[in-house]
Amino acid sequence: MASKGTFLDPQAGLVWENYLLNKEKFVGTPGYPATLDGFASMEELIPIYHEFMQRAEKIPGLRIVFGTDALAGSHGRNAEEFIDRVRDVGVDAMSAMVSANSLGAEALGMADQIGSIAPGLQADIIALDGDPLKDVTAVRRVVFVMKGGIVYKNVARGCSARKCPSHY
Prior knowledge:
The chain is an alpha+beta fold. Helix content is about 35%, strand content about 10%. Strands 3-4-5-6 form a four-stranded antiparallel sheet, with no helix packed on it. A hairpin with a 2-residue loop joins strand 4 and strand 5. The longest helix has 18 residues. The chain starts with 6 loop residues before the first strand and ends in an 8-residue tail after the last strand.
């Protein structure tokens, strides 16, 4: 993959964790184990996934993006996958941020439109309560969200797109 310039999008960790956190909702439905005990194999996959990621991180030139296979119940939980990559896999926090932003845009062939904060590019911006380079769990504490120039969440001011003006 590295020699061909192919991007790797290892997104299964969040999927398995979501199944495990919500196994009571999945048990017995088509494609899932009939009993809670049947989910043990998924629990065994998470350390294998961590090892896979650790090995992938050591491959020179391999471009690993932060993607998702967000199934029902996992939307809004991407911070957990991000934390997992940094805390449990050992990915450098700045590398994880780049993989989720500019590298992701490059993988989509859209680096000339999104993925960076630069003149002429579309930018969705978040502000965190804390420095994710020092404490990766800061990605759970979003205090400001702006998309297309409209503020949708501003915890610091107690505002949302419905309650506050779009310009501060």
